[in-house]
Amino acid sequence: QVQLVESGGGLVRAGDSLQLSCAASGRTFSFGRYSMAWFRQAPGKEREFVAAVRWDGSLQYGTDSLKGRFTVSRDTAKNTMYLQMNSLQAGDTAVYSCAARLKSLLPLNIPRYESWGQGTQVTVSS
Fold it and tell me: Residue 110 has what DSSP assignment?
């Protein structure tokens, strides 16, 4: 089983930047076998796909708006995925969670992942 631990959330002002980290561990984990994703959920809203790194290293973003401000990456040596968030807006306020799953034909934006982190709160004040 894969364990995921997010970090880096916090309270920032609109226009600021923040970087989230998701550290993966587990005997079977390797980025070559797992795809990883970031999702977020704001109060009263449905879970939203933010970005993902496929097992082959390809990237995918939820919307064009997110792609222009957020950057997802991974460090294979550290088994860690990152989400660099720039030009944060009040609408980005949410709990951000990372997820992982073995190679699959499922689209990355479908939240059917085998492992989930506990989530980290990001609050953007306007």
Answer: S
Per-position DSSP letters for 21-69, written without gaps between them: EEEEE-TT--TTTEEEEEEEE-TTS--EEEEEE-TTS-EEES-HHHHHH
Question: Token digits for 70?
Answer: 């957020």
Confidence of residue 12 (pLDDT cuts 50, 70, 90): very high
Question: Angle 59-60-65 (CA atoms, 0-180°, nearest 5)?
Answer: 125
* CB-CB neighbours of 11 under 10 Å: 12
The tens digit of pLDDT for each residue in 56-112 reads: 999 999 988 898 899 999 999 999 999 999 999 999 999 999 999 999 889 999 999
